[in-house]
Amino acid sequence: MRWVVCADEDGGGRLALLAEPAPSPSAASPSAHDPDARPAAEVTVAEVRDVPDLPSAIRELESTHRPRWIWADTARLYPGLLRAGIRISRCHDVVLVDEILAARAGRFGAPRTLGAAYARLHDLPVPDVGRMTAATEAVGGGGPQQDALFSADDTGLPTEVEPLSALIEVYQAQLAELDAAGREVRLLAAAESAGGLAAAEMTHAGLPLDPGLHSANLTEALGPMPAFAGPGARPAKLQTLVEHVAEAFRTPALNPDSPTQLLKALSTNGLPAHTTRAWELRGLEHPGVPLLLEYKELARLYSANGWTWLRAWVRDGRFRPEYVVGGVVTGRWASRGGGALQLPAMVRRAVVADPGWTFVVADAGQLEPRVLAAMSGDRGLATAAQAEDLYTELGDVFGGDRAKAKLGMLGAMYGQTSGEVGPLLATLRRRFPRAIGLVDDAAKSGIEGRVVHTRLGRACPPPSARWNRLVAGAEGEAKADQVRHDRGRFTRNFVVQGTAAEWALALIATLRQKLADSPAELVFFLHDEVVLHCAGSEAEHVRAAVTESALEAARLVFGSTPVRFPLHLATVPCYADAK
pLDDT digits over 21-36, tens only? Predict the structure, then answer.
C-alpha cells in the first residue's frame, strides 16, 4: 500500500492512495529495502482524502497497514510526526531520490525541493528556493524550532500547480527512471529514504549529554566561563596561554587567532612557516611552539564546543544536531551546525547514558579497504579481508610490516602514489590486480574528465567549466596536469568512500527495521560508527541486531562475498569509554 502525503503548516493536509499495479510474472519480489524491484507502472490514484488532522490520519494508517509513504521531504514533514508520537516504517523521499537521479544526469548543486524536481521534469527554470528544513528556520542556528507542526512548505512550485498532483507526477517519473536504472539504484533510493527517516529520528531522540558535566569539564580545561561573551573574551587559562605565547615569540600584542600576525611572529623568530596549521607547526623547533599548539587545541574546544555551543545545541539533556543525508557528494552525511560529525573526546566524556540505560557503540574497523575487496571481487584481497585485522594480514606481503601494508593501501585508495608509497603500491598491484586496478581505472576516468559511480550507482560530479578551461591550457600545461591529477585522486577515492557510505546506509536502514518494536534508540551516526541508547537489559539484544544488520548490509550491497565486515562492539555507560 502506498499513500502520498502533502502537509499544511496548521497540521492538516491531503492524502492520496495509489492503486497497486498488477504483479508481473517476471518481476523480482519487492522487499523492505528494494521496494520497486518491478517494472514501473502507470501511477493511478484510487482515493484522495482531505484531512484536518494529518498526524492522526497517518497514525491510524501506519498502525493498521504500515504503508509506504510518498512525500516531498522527510526533513520537513517527519519531525512533526515524531513530536506527535508517530514513527513510520517506510517512505519514498522525493527530494532525496531526485538528488540521486539528478546527479546521475549530471546536474549537481540544484535546490533540493519538490518545485525543483517538478521544474526539471518539465524543463522549466529551476526555482531558486533552498531546501526548507527546521534548521534553516532556526534563529541563530540553535537547532530545530517547533512552533509549527510542519515546517514551511516553500517548495517553489508554480502557483497554478496543485502540490499533491505535482508530487504524484514527480514520483511516477522517478519510478520510471529507477526502473530504467536497475536494481542497484533502486536499492540506493530506498536506503537513502530510510536514512532520511533515521536522521530525523536521531535528531528527535537526541544524544544524551550531561550539560553540567560538560560545563565542569570545560571549566577544568579552560578556566571559568567568561563573564561576558563579546569579541575577544577568553576563559582565564586561554588568556594566560595567549600571554605566554606572546612572550615566547617576543611579540607583546600577538593575537594567536590571527594567521597574519602569527605568520609574521614566526618569521621574525626565524620560523618561515607557510601556514598556521597544527601539522606544520609541529615540525618547527622553538620553545613557543608547544604553547601555541596547546592554545590552538583549547581555543578550538572553546569556539566549537564551549558554553555557547552548549546553550545552543543541548536541550533537555540531549544534543540534537540536524543531519543532512547525502550532504557530501560521496553520499556521506553532513550536519547543519553543532559539529555533530566532529565530536572531540572532551565532549564524549559528557555523553552519559540515562540511569539504568547504556550505550551500544558499533565501529566498523578498516571499512574502506574491505569495501574495495568486496566491490572489486579480488580474491586475494577478499581472503585477507576475512581476518579481524586486515592490515596485519596484508603485512605478509611486505615481510610482516603492518605499517607498510596500511600505508600502501591508503595510498591506493586516496591517491598518494609518489615517494615512499610508490614501491608499496607497485607491490599491491602485482598481488591484488583487480582491487588496485579498480581504483586505478577510477583515477584514469577522472583524469580524462569522465564520471564514475559507486557500487549502487551514485554518480560523482562531472568536471566543472573551470576544470575544462584549465585542462585546455588556459593557465599553462603545468596547471592542466595538476587539475587532471587532482580530479583523478578525487574519483579514485570516490568509488570506495561512496560505496562505504552505501554499506553504512544499508546498515542503518536494516537496523532501524530490526529495532522498530524495541525501546532502543539510534542516537548518533558518524560515517562508520553508530551509537544506540538502550536499557541495560536490552544490550545483548541490541548487539545481536547490530551484528545481523552488518551482515545484511554486506549482502544487500555486494551480494554473496567472502569479505568480512567485523564490528568493534562496546557496551558502555559513557561514550568516551568506547574508544
Answer: 765 544 443 444 554 4
Write the DSSP assignment of 14-45 as a string of letters: EEEEEEPPPPPTTSPPP-SSSTT-S-----EE
Residues of the chain under the 50 pLDDT cut:
25-32, 35-39, 131-142, 144-145
Q: How far apart are CA 448 and CA 442, in angstroms?
A: 10
Report how far residue 436's alpha carbon sits from residue 298's, in angstroms, rounded to the nearest whole number.
Answer: 41
Contact 305, 346 (CB under 8 A): yes
Cβ neighbours, 10 Å, residue 8: 16
Cα–Cα distance, 169 to 524 (Å, whole number): 35
Q: Which of 489, 493, 509, 492 is nearest to 557 (CA)?
A: 509
Residues 333 and 324: their CA atoms lie apart, in Å, by 6
> Which pLDDT score, from 0 to 100, does residue 147 have?
52
Of 107, 113, 110, 109, which Cα lies nearest the Cα of 93?
A: 113
Q: Residue 122 carries which side chain, given as an amino acid letter?
A: H
Q: Is 305 helix (H, G, I), strand (E, B) or coil?
A: helix
How far is the C-alpha of 20 from the C-alpha of 24, rounded, in Å? 12
- Grid cell of 191 as nine digits: 536506503
Counting beta carbons within 10 angstroms of the beta carbon of residue 29, is it exposed (0 to 12), middle (13 to 18) or buried (19 or more)? exposed
Query: Which helix (H) or strand (E) segment is 172 a member of?
Result: helix 163-181
98 vs 72: CA distance, rounded Å: 10
Query: 62: how many CB neighbours lie within 10 A of its CB?
Result: 18
Dmax (CA) of the chain: 82
